Amino acid sequence: MQERIYVCDHRGTIMQARIYVCDCRGTIMQVRIYVCDYRGTIMQARIYVCDYRGTIMQVRIYVCDYRGTIMQVRIYVCDYRGTIMQVRIYVCDYRGTIMQIRIYVCDYRGTIMQVRIYVCDYRGTIMQVRIYVCDYRGTIMQIRIYVSDYRGTMLSGEKKIERRGG
């Protein structure tokens, strides 16, 4: 079962499209929202994926430039209660090549426990990895940095910065 809603401007150009996908019982399983500019180019797409009870399990947000090229992707992964457990952010250049990946890992309360940042060159090769490890309050306790060459080979091992105590 599917429900589609299109919102148009005074000229008839689609400015927003909303698609609701339901199971046989009528429970919403997926919601897709596309936001367009005045020319009808998609500027943002939001996808909400739900479980059999209708609880949001994943949110995907795609942000585009004026040409429709994806510039950023944000993915929020939730547990069965709807608490965010992981956030993944992909940042792209004007060609759509991934330049940076940021991953936030959370505990059952939604507190950030780990942040991983991958920095890429213009070809998409990972050049640097930074890992931030946090305690239960979200305080950074450890930073690990890995650096690689243009082929993706790790040059330097682990550079650790640790904090002890409260």
Write a structural description.
- By secondary structure, this protein is mainly β.
- The chain has no helices and twelve strands.
- Strand 2 and strand 3 form a beta hairpin.
- The chain has a domain of about 80 residues.
- About 0% of the residues lie in helices and about 65% in strands.
List the helices and strands and how they pair.
Blueprint: E1 2-8, E2 14-22, E3 28-36, E4 42-50, E5 56-64, E6 70-78, E7 84-92, E8 98-106, E9 112-120, E10 126-134, E11 140-148, E12 154-162
Antiparallel strand pairs: 1-2, 2-3, 3-4, 4-5, 5-6, 6-7, 7-8, 8-9, 9-10, 10-11, 11-12
pLDDT under 50 segments (min length 5)?
Answer: none
Q: Overall mean pLDDT score?
A: 90
Cα end-to-end separation: 54 Å
Identify the overall geometry. Answer: flat
Tally the helices: 0
Topology pattern, helix = H, strand = E: EEEEEEEEEEEE
Helix-strand makeup class? mainly beta
Radius of gyration: 20 Å
**Describe the biggest sheet?**
12 strands, antiparallel
Strand content: over 45%
Strands in their spatial order, largest beta sheet: 1-2-3-4-5-6-7-8-9-10-11-12
Query: Can you give the helix content as a percent range?
Result: under 10%
Overall number of strands: 12
